[in-house]
Amino acid sequence: MRFGAIEAGVVLSLAFFGLQARAATRTVTFAAYQARGEAERQKLARRYVRKAGEYWQVQLASYLVRTDISEQNALALAVKMDEFYRKFTRVFVGPFRTRARPELFVLKDTAAYQSTIWTWSEGRMSAPGWSAGMFAYVGHRYALFGCAKWGDERLYKTLFHEGTHHLLRFYIGVEFPRWFNEGVATNFETWDVDFSSERNVYEEIWRSERVGYLYGMATGKIKGMEAKPDLIALMASGDEQWLDSASPHPLYAQAWGFVNFLLSSGATGQRNFNVLIRAFRSGQQLRKVLPTHIRMALASQYNAYISEVIIPHCEFSRPIAGLLGKGSIADATKVLEVALGKHPGNTELLFFNGFLALRAGKAKEAYGMLKPLEKRFPRHPLLMRILGEAALASGDRFKARKWLKLAVGEDFRDEHAKDLLEKAKKPAGR
Fold it and tell me: Whole-model pTM?
């Protein structure tokens, strides 16, 4: 019996990767904020942000944000975290169980960060000096905290990771397994709010450090990572194993891999992901959600994902991408020939095959190679743009517009896709 058999009666929301934000009476969209100049952003900050004691405070669509940094920083935090919230909700079916507004404090230095957590928790919680952020709760009170001292990259990675724990708690409303909690958080920690939810899912394998750890476990090629991935053992792990482990990387890598396996596997994986979520929301025990025979089948699929996706990604796709980035097309082609000999059905490698055909001037052939990959998973994050480029080079402006619109929808910063789209909109010969 395959895992998909437990999906009966579950309907995946059509808004899974929708583009419409939830209704809000006071909001500044992320795209609109990014498009504004410095003077306009300052005007928006004066309009929305208020001083509340020692903090600048603002609430737009979702988060209640407090910071001691500046009026404009408060608005920038609120806009970015609201976009993260919006994209978070696109991955889940149904409303939040806890209907409270999530609270966020971001402090300028470690002293203020530690003091705020201590005061908020009434002396029950503290933060170490190396901490860049944490999700805290006392009773039925919840808040997210961040320390800006460490810079934006580390700050937002931490806020997205800890913020996922925060929002999952609101969404599920009850205790649920740590392995699943950390698996979701590690997938969301590297999200880019400029990208669509779907694009972020397919970017994850290229951005997460967990990929290397999972590869090391599967192949034994990284010292200290000799233990093989074991989904059954991961699902049986308790809090004590996570908290007491001398090296938590294997646990985090496997949890990341399992959730990435589900989210990047198209509609079936996404349905299965939401089956687990709904079961946890109902308070069901894991043995009822996933009986032994289903866990065994799921583990087999997960192992196949590691051998057919993770291993060729690390051994071939990343080296090929690196060579292409240096302009070494001939060397990339040689590596790709070897790779396809070992993994002829791998979607990333097939993407590179079509990409190299396009660069060789074989646009129609490239389009024919790339088009079937639209419905195969996990797909390369640049597939839509390269399909559009191939269609345009083939002279099919209608198809080019279709793919390039999708590419811009996935990443509104993609200036190359925008330029190609403008060319596709012009009559032939102009």
Answer: 0.89
